[in-house]
Design brief:
The protein is α+β, with helices and mostly antiparallel strands. The chain is about 25% helix and about 20% strand.
């Protein structure tokens, strides 16, 4: 990952932001000390990534799930007497 100093970041901000938006994050440093990391907004943090299938086998969905409560719903909307 590229590290740039504040002066260089100010001078080349547009170019650096364009590169970060395309997936090349960078770090801005002051006097050689890293201060901030610039990453694209749509890139989720590692802690926000959802794990697919993490509850597999812990519950089951009935075959008629999409029809459950149909009679009550039809009655509420006046479709059934």
């Amino acid at each position: 990952m590229q590290t740039v100093n504040i002066h260089n970041a100010k001078t080349n901000l547009s170019r650096l932001v364009d590169r970060a938006a395309k997936g090349e994050p960078f770090i801005i440093a002051k006097a050689g000390k890293p201060l901030v990391k610039v990453v694209p907004i749509d890139q989720p943090a590692a802690s926000q990534i959802k794990r697919l299938g993490f509850m597999a086998g812990q519950f089951s969905v009935p075959d008629d799930f999409d029809r459950m409560g149909g009679d009550e719903i039809e009655q509420l909307f006046g479709l059934k007497a």
